[in-house]
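REVIEWER CHECKLIST
Item 1: Sequence provided? yes
Item 2: Single chain? yes
Item 3: Sequence as submitted:
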Amino acid sequence: MSGSDTDSNSVGDYRFIGREIWRRTWQPFLHFPFVSYVILSIICLGCLGIWVELIKTQLTTLPASYDGVFTAIVTFYPALIGSASLQLILSSTGNSDKVLVSFAQIALFSAFISVALISVFHQLYPDWSFKVAIFFAVFAIWFWWFTNADDLTYRNAPIDAPAGGDTAKALKGDLGNFKVDG
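Item 4: Structure as written out by the authors:
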């Protein structure tokens, strides 16, 4: 993308956030370290409480109760959304990117409101509450993905190029008339 495609002032806030969502959703699939980190660390280890509760329900000889699974899901996703939101807010504030800060605030607010509503309505609508909790758990994983899509830590790329880009690429300019006094 060109610089004008990634600047909310030139394309408008809604188009900018739409393009960022699209780009940050699909671009990380090209980076194996990123995808493997999400699978191993976020899904396998981060969801460990959910996996343990699912295994417990499958191993019991009593009628299965999914209350433990529900609790594990409802405690998993606000933590992941909360940490990813704060990370996105801090990184976007440094870039003066109010659109991404606002997006992070909406995600954070939605996560905590959903926990409150799910907790209140779980006894009346257990199936609906469970489905909404699963939706937010999937959203939490995607939101972490979105937040970290541009992080070079999870890419197979040199992270020591201070000017950005390929360090083997020829630099612009001419040093032909440059003289050192000595």
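Item 5: Key structural point noted by reviewer: The radius of gyration is 22 Å.
Item 6: Recommendation: ____
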